[in-house]
Amino acid sequence: MGSRLPPMLKDAGLTAFVAAALGIFVVGFRTVDQGRGLTFDYHLVDLAVAVVTIFFGRLGLSLAADGLRWPAMTLGAVMIAVGASPLQLPSGFLHWFVALGGVLLVIRGAWPWANDAMTAAARAPSGVTLSRAGAKWSGWLLLAGAVAMPFTPFADQKTMDLGVLILTYVMLGWGLNIVVGLAGLLDLGYVAFYAVGAYSYALLSTQHGLGFWVVLPLAGMMAALFGIVLGFPVLRLRGDYLAIVTLGFGEIIRLVILNWFDLTNGPAGIGSIPGPTLFGAVFAETAPAGKQTVSEMLGIPFNGIHRLIFLYYIILLLALITNLFTQRMRRLPVGRAWEALREDETACRALGINPTNTKLTAFAVGAMFAGFAGSFFAAKQRFISPESFVFIESAIILAIVVLGGMGSQIGVVLAAVLLIGLPEWFRDLGNYRMLAFGLAMVLIMVFRPRGLIAHREPSLRLHPVRPAGGG
Amino acid sequence: MNAPQSPPLIDVEHLTMRFGGLLAVDDVSFAARPREITAIIGPNGAGKTTVFNCITGFYKPTVGRLTLRGGDRDYLLERMLGHEVGQRAKVARTFQNIRLFPAMTVLENLMVAQHNKLMRASGWSVFGLLGLGSYRKAEEAGVELARDWLERIELLDDADRPAGELPYGAQRRLEIARAMCTEPRLLCLDEPAAGLNPRESAQLNQLLVSIRDRDGVGMLLIEHDMSVVMNISDHIVVLDYGRKIAEGSPAEVQDDPAVIRAYLGTDDEAIDG
User: Do the Cβ atoms of B105 and A458 come within 8 Å?
Assistant: First the structure.
């Protein structure tokens, strides 16, 4: 160990030096306007703390890479302790910086054990079969949990709201999964179809008095139509080119909504959108003229949470329809052609498959589900404006699909819970929750580069799977 | 060999393909008969693959006519869109560098090949989504066809493995089976023996002969492996620098001085093997 330490120290010193050289102008000096011209404000202590943290962080990583897990983890623990201590560091950010560095070190130190455990589990006899059966069971368990959720004691306002939000993203993720995961078309403007669905419902309900259940299919068709109109000219592009054009299309839709004042009310948005009804009854304390409230119809006292529970079940149902539809499509020729297109477009053409039509169906179907989700969103929020349909939404949905494991349905659920649920739960962290979001993404990319669930289940089998325990 | 008067399966007339200043194929004409293996040989860069790409709809020829004789009508391949050549005219092909769908299973690869047939049977997905019996029957028939082919290429046990995991020789055979699952009139094989060992190469010969004799499919074959070409071809077309320099039976081509000069050179061993 004695001989291995000097090079590590040298390496850590070099890293700290580079960090100091880069950081001195960014962190070390700040110009302040004092009324009589600019003067420098020195933050050299900040810089020093950061450089020292980087030095020990790098040292810890080298130790862990060298197999010295315990020293690395001890170093990490010390850093967490320093970060969490009441010690007066110059800024709150530095506390987080030091503590997060420590957390990373501990994870890095403990990783080989977790990794060994996972490989051992995978190598265990009939491990493959077990994991397949496990995936199936965990899906049913998740579903049962989701159905029972509103009746559990946790089901307060906040949790139900979060449940609705997560399920919305699960549905959007499943919809985009058709386009990106199955057909392999990188769509960076998916939120545009979400917007089309939302505005379809908002306009048809507020201006023509149509109800949610009538507009829902119309909104889906409208979004699918937009998908076809956009897809027709651009789907002959491949890869990066397609991504750029869809990105542009997403922005165009948003800008049109923003500027077409007569139709969409521009940046002011559309308000007082009616919510979904249950057999014609509305969810409200007092019913508008000629209507009945749900509490009157069922003879139960009014409670604001009933509306949330109802919304929760609607989005759960919509998401499940999306999932079932996708699962079925995968087993049909068109679904197999989507996957084949993702694998090799040239080979598809040689087999007589029309690539444009096949891509167009994937695009339209994906857009249709975004349209459904959009009209649900409008009915839930009761107010929509272009701000809800910015690029970051597309990026988050795409992140859910990619991090979940392209084409994996259950992976999308896990990624949605992780990427939507965690930042909401950690809302108390304030601005740092985006940092946690980024950290979660980086960790998934480092440790599960092919997504959380990378296993692909064949759409049909010739030989039945050997039962678990048979080997 | 068939009687010489039987009408050709495909007529290639004055095929010319120009890429900017490069004349890749220069006024090539030949015909391939049904139930025959027609080999296209020539040194590297002679334009063989370009001819294939024109026939299979990947390139639009600069000049020339490509007539495929179907059962009841003729198809002018140079006027069809890329995928229509496979869909309507029923010309299937394999690629020099194997192009399977690696993440999909062997069976799925063969099912994708039956796309157009199954698409019709699934009522463009509507019946299939509803789970109607007619589609299920069509799918079962499709699986049966795939199973037959898997038996013929000896991959039945690997049916549920991802195609990308197969050994190289098996991938070559699978690509041929996949092309055959489109139930083609004409099968174009681009160097199917490339990278195979002598045993696999002999297996391939058997497979191609059985496709010709049992399935009655006409084949165009690009190949450098002379043990394949000379053993199983009925007819050989020799290209050099984009032009046809000879045509005839294997024996005729072997003795053609132009071929020996341009292609075989002094190395006679290659043709004897």
Answer: yes
Q: Which helix (H) or strand (E) holds A119?
A: helix A92-123
Q: Pick from A129, A325, A332 the residue to mutate for testing the B interface (most B CBs within 10 Å).
A: A332
Q: Is residue B195 classed as helix, strand or coil in its secondary structure?
A: coil
Alpha-carbon span B104 to A351, nearest angstrom: 15
How confident is the prediction along chain B (273 residues), in pLDDT tens digits per residue?
444 557 888 888 888 898 888 888 888 888 888 888 999 988 888 888 898 888 888 888 888 888 888 878 888 888 878 788 778 888 899 998 899 999 899 999 999 999 888 887 777 777 667 766 678 888 888 899 999 999 998 888 888 889 988 999 899 999 999 999 998 989 999 988 888 888 888 888 889 999 988 888 889 999 888 888 888 888 999 888 888 888 888 888 888 888 877 765 555 555 544
Report which of residues A13 and A120 the model is more confident about.
Answer: A13
What's the CA gap between B213 and B201, in Å, rounded?
18
d(Cα B120, Cα B3) in Å, to the nearest integer?
A: 37
Lowest mean pLDDT among A297-306, A384-393, B97-106, B144-153: A297-306
Phi, then psi, of B231 in degrees rounded to 5:
-80, -40
Cα–Cα distances (Å) from B263 to A257, A348, B9, B180, B244, in that order, read 66, 34, 27, 31, 12
Helix axes B168-181, B198-213, angle to 10 degrees: 10
ipTM: 0.86
Any CB–CB contact under 8 A between B176 and chain A? no
pLDDT value, residue B263: 64
Of A336, A343, A456, the CB nearest to B111: A336
Ranges of beta strands (E only) in A245-309 are none
Q: Do B112 and A462 touch (CB under 8 A)?
A: no
CATH assignment, B1-90+184-273: 3.40.50.300
Strand-by-strand arrangement of the B74-76 sheet:
B22-32, B10-19, B63-69, B74-76
Of residues A325, A328, A347, nearest to B101 (C-beta): A347
Q: Enumerate the domain spans of chain B.
A: 1-90+184-273, 100-176
CB contact under 8 A, A333 and B114: yes
- Cβ-Cβ contacts under 8 Å, A339 against chain B: 101, 103-104, 108
CA distance A92 to A83: 9
Q: Which residue of B has its CA nearest to A342?
A: B101
Q: Is the pLDDT of residue A127 over 50?
A: no
Separation of CA A328 from chain center = 24
Cα B170 from Cα A202, distance rounded (Å): 57
pLDDT in tens, A46-84: 888 888 888 988 888 888 888 788 888 888 888 888 887
Say yes or no to pLDDT of A181 above 80. yes
CA distance B181 to B110: 6
With contacts defined as CB-CB under 8 Å, which chain A residues touch B118? Answer: 333
Distant-in-sequence, close-in-space partners of B56: CB < 8 Å, separation ≥ 6: A350, B85, B86, B91, B93, B188
Q: Across the A/B interface, how many CB contacts are shorter than 8 Å?
A: 125
The secondary structure of residue B177, as a DSSP letter, is H
A 10 A CB-CB count for B80 gives 19
CB atoms within 10 A of CB A94: 18
**Residue to substitute from B68, B77, B99, B112, interface A, most A β-carbons within 10 A:** B112
